[in-house]
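Q: I have two molecules that I believe assemble together. Could you output structure tokens for the complex as a whole instead of separate predictions?
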Amino acid sequence: MTAAPAPHPDPLPARGERERAGTKPLAPRAGRGRDPSRQRREGKGLARRRLTGRCAKLALSLLLLLIVSLPAHAVRPDEVLPDPALEARARDIGKELRCLVCRNQSVDDSDASLAHDLRVLVRQRLAAGDSDAQVVAYVRSRYGDYVLLRPPFQLDTWLLWGGPAAILLVGLWGVGRYLRRQARMTAAPPLSPDEERRLARILDEKPPA
Amino acid sequence: MRRWLYLLPVLVFGLIAAGFYVALGTDTEALPSALIDEAAPQFALPPLPGRDKGLTTADLKTGVSLVNVFASWCVPCREEHKVLTALAASKRVPIYGIDYKDKGETAKAWIAELGDPYTLIGADDGQVGIEWGVYGVPETFLVDGTGHIRYKHVGPLTQADIDKTLLPLVARFEK
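A: Yes, here they are, computed for all two components at once.
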């Protein structure tokens, strides 16, 4: 069962080959009274410049892509309200509402048809003159607290919100205790006169030969 | 005191294990309804094509009833349909249907093929579903005689669900 490892299939030509291939059309025609070694050097320099140029272009386009790309929204063009102010409010609400089909996406990010219905509903209510809070309260009255991506602070969520702070406090208390004990141990009480005498005696003793 | 501290990790582990054990087997996907003990939403749904009566809130105030949200495109509904048909045949409790985000003709064909356990069916494009807090099909609500939602079942009903949960609830709210 010991087959010789197949040579790695390299789709790209080896580095030198690639540079030479790139040089070919650019290299000045031979036999014009030029030193052939100089020609080669020039060709290589050109290829390298070309290569770095390509890298720069690639980097630039990637950078542009990063700058230009916006978070993907599932909001369809036919849902968008004509009034930009209302639409902006609808987006703010949509970001805070959970899509109950996909659970960990907001209504704005989800392609689920329920999310679409909720986006339309939010826009209908806003267009009818509801305040943001009223719209959210309506959706919450239908789907419960779980529909809110940011859980409210209330009786059954105090542990959720207070938990991290409580753990931090317990940790600080533990560290404080540890440090205090460390301090007590390093600052030993001064020796009593009796202990001083014993210590002096021990220090005076000659080590056994 | 010192000795007791060594037991702390065991204690913490025990607590975590107990928590997991309790949570084992519970359906964490099903969400509790925000509408339990609330009045059923006001709605008026049109009928399926070829029928003359849809479904409205007033229909639900005649006694304890089940409201089943279904769709012909929903695969689990097909399985649930047998159980619903058997329940309807027993005439124990009326079942009202909300045909959710469906094509009228397809739903009609579906009913014609599988039988009709529903006293009335309303066709919903999704708006009334939101009113009821529906986030998937099938879902089944138990509505008492005063038109208040008392129980919600998410997912297809099984015979066990009906015998062990729904029918006792029906009996309780009939009093």
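A: One point stands out. The beta strands of chain B are 44-45, 55-56, 65-70, 95-100, 120-124, 139-143, 149-154.
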